[in-house]
Amino acid sequence: MALALPVLAHSLFGATVGISLSMLMAGLAVTLPLIWGRRSWGRAIVISAEDIQVMRCDGTTLAITGSAITALINKTDCVGVVWQDGPKRRSLVIGGEGFSPPTWQQLAQAFQALELQRKGATVAAP
After folding, report:
1. Distance of alpha carbon 18 from the chain centroid
2. Are 85 and 68 in contact (CB under 8 A)?
3. Most buried of the four, 83, 85, 108, 112, by CB within 10 Å?
4. Where are the alpha helices (DSSP H) in the chain?
5. Helix or strand or coil: residue 69?
6. DSSP string, 26-60
7. Which tens digit of pLDDT belongs to each residue from 46-89?
8. Residues 6 or more apart whose Cβ sits within 8 Å of residue 113
9. Pairing mode, if any, of strands 78-85 and 69-74?
């Protein structure tokens, strides 16, 4: 997308090279932080009966207590959690595209087990 803007401007409107380069830099300045933000949910996740802990890329840990969780999302291509953080409602969605199939299956099973525990059902040990 960022590269398409200067090419389009140059070919359609006859924009100069300077304007095209300026548009390229502006496109990259907007696009790169969005890509980085999308990838930076964390580097590890620990799911237990009491809470969910996400070890972020910057070294901090996000701890989501079980009592604050309002919803769990467990779909074939993503998992997520919605929780109440004081007056704010927050959410974390993790897509499956960056995981190997066995790892993704384990993560989905862990979310399913947590969902069953929250509903009061018994969960068999893996």
Report:
1. 36
2. yes
3. 83
4. 4-13, 17-39, 101-119
5. strand
6. HHHHHHHHHHHHHH-S-SEEEE-SSEEEEE-TTS-
7. 988 788 998 887 788 889 998 899 998 889 899 999 999 999 99
8. 47, 123
9. antiparallel
Tokens of 3: 């590269």
- How far is 26 from 20, CA to CA, in rounded Å? 10
Provide the phi-psi class of 12: left if phi over 0, else alpha when psi is between -120 and 50, else beta: alpha
Q: Do residues 89 and 69 lie in contact, with contact meaning Cβ atoms separated by under 8 Å?
A: no
Closest CA to 66 of 123, 108, 119: 119
Task: Find tokens 């790892």 and name the residue.
Answer: 103
Report pLDDT digits (tens) over 2-50. 566 556 666 666 667 677 677 778 877 877 776 665 555 677 889 887 8
List CB contacts of 61: < 8 A, sequence separation 6 or more.
Answer: 53, 54, 55
Distances (CA, A) of 92 to 30, 46, 68, 84, 105: 22, 14, 13, 12, 18
